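Data availability (excerpt). The following record was deposited with the supplementary files.
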Amino acid sequence: MEKNKIRFSIIVIHRNRFDLLHSCLLSIIGSISNNDEIILIDNNSSDDSMSKLKSTNFYQKIKIIANKCNFGYGESCNQGMKAANGKYFILCNNDVKLNQNALTLFYEYLNKKNIGIIGPQMLTPSGSYMNSYSTIPFDLLSQLDLVGRPRRSKEIKSLAPVENLRGACLAVNKEMVKELGGYDEDFYFYHEETEWCFRINQSKNWKVMFSPEIKIFHIGGGTTENVFKESRIEFFRSRIKFWQKIFPFRTRLLVYLINLPKLLLDLIFYCFMTLVTFGKVKTYRRKALDRSIVLVWLVLGMPKKWGLQDKCN
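Predicted structure:
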């Protein structure tokens, strides 16, 4: 393929779980044309993902960049975009599945003026709608528990501008990246798409768009199921970085001080609910574990070594 004729560079970020990767790649291969390319960023998988991939009949169709450590999501996406030759990029987790018409619609919309990034309607494996966009939460109350958690504030029936997108699968205009830059690499995992959408919307030349017509399946949490405790540390670490980049010092301090007692009250509540339900409700157990882990991490001064392992720095 000639570089100037490549339509999409589809960049998949992967670390472990070959079952997810295999389904993802099959859906992509079933959707692409001859003028698309697939780039896989492997963040030093510790399972046998890469050896299994080599045994597939589509291995030769994929450009693989094998990292010797885990760059995290945003930096890996940037790495893929730098190596890409396409006019546009598709950035996705390894736990998504593309529908056959997704690329056609993404291409049609990205050709419209000033569209920098598009998010699709995400679906659960059973076909239920997932919240796929939201407002950027700037008010103090929203920072108690909602930052970076997409929700639908109104029903959108056709392509429309929004403030924030769920980052599991995004279509991106290469020209926008050249002008504004890619993901902020200060975010290792979580909130990187929220900061990026904020930056894009702050610009005068580009728009963040949501398309309910483009539907993509997303397992959600598939890549962090086996590292739940570590991922919760990364979530809150990135949350604090988001506050640092968006809010003035006084607001950051106030938000931080409010969140400490809020986390403690949450912990008490979810521990109580776990007890009265005899530990049979997984949601209560996980939320109690989440709050306890984050509280201990904060009290101990936010140790850098806590969180996801095998980081590159």
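Summary of structural features: The longest helix spans residues 249-276.
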